[in-house]
Amino acid sequence: MAGKNEIKASVRLEGGSTFKKDITDVNKNLKQLDAESKKTAAQFDGQANSLQALTAKQKVLNQTLEEAQRKIQLYDARIKDLEGQQKSIADATEKYRDELKDAQAALSHMDKGTDAYRQQAAAVEDLSRKVALGEKNQERAAGQIQKYKTEQTQAEAAVAKLNREIEDNARYLKEAESASDQCATSIDEYGKKTKKAAEESKDLGDIAKVALGNLAESLAIRTNRVGNLFPLFHKCFCFLLLLEHGAHQSFCCFMTLHTGFRLDKFSI
Q: How far is CA 49 from CA 34, 112, 136, 182, 240, in A?
């Protein structure tokens, strides 16, 4: 019986319940931290740019980032574990498939009704179950790997967003620490960007318009079909407006990727 259980274990997926519990715990913690973030925002309503409010916000953001990074690590570990199990199951299933062929061949040469035939038939049935289980769990592993990779990508996007929030809030904190009234200057008391920050965003949009104009003119000389490229210009313009840093460099990289033209030579 011990040998039979050992064989069965080799074609089964393990560790799923532990992983699901860990992910559930992390999601629960993230939900609690989201509630804490809302509580902090309500507590400092009308004082969002104050040193005290920004310090409290930074604390919650850092705690949230820690949990979000832990979530990525859990996905990474589970994916690697599943990939290892998938290979082991594939190897074991192939072994049992070979054994099944040999067992079926031996059974075909036995006399029906004998004890030897019944024992061999039971062995064939057992090996058939193992092969079927192995094939099923290979498919399950592949499905779970794909699912968790998608969820991991979503978690990584959330971490990237958190990092940007932390970076921005750290900048506001520095402003508040340096200010005589201990309030940041880039955002107002409600956490919205001030006129100065809005003007900086407008400057970014102006850079985008000039860059697109120069690009259109340059491509017109080469292709004589700028009109056909207008939808692409519009998409790239929208893309650029979403950026906060490195606008010109990101714009050039993005357009070079999608048009095949080297844009680093075009001045803005």
A: 20, 87, 56, 8, 27
| Confidence at residue 81, expressed as pLDDT on a 0 to 100 scale | 95
pTM beyond 0.70: no
What confidence tens digit (pLDDT) does each residue in 91-105 have? 999 999 999 999 999
CB 29 within 8 A of CB 67: yes
Query: How many C-beta atoms surround the C-beta of residue 21 within 10 A?
Result: 10
How many alpha carbons fall within 13 Å on the CB side of residue 155?
23
CA pair distance 206, 200, nearest whole angstrom: 10
Whole-number Å distance between alpha carbons of 266 and 255: 12
Between these two residues, 103 and 242, which has the higher pLDDT value?
Answer: 103
Q: Which amino acid is at 98?
A: D
pLDDT of 14: 85
Give the number of residues written for the chain: 268
Report the distance separating Cα 264 and Cα 248, nearest Å: 9
- Tokens describing residue 120: 């061999």
Q: Whole-angstrom Cα distance, residue 79 to residue 242?
A: 32
Residues 45 and 47: their CA atoms lie apart, in Å, by 5
* pLDDT, tens digit (0-9, with 9 covering 90-100), for 61-92: 999 999 999 999 999 999 999 999 999 999 99
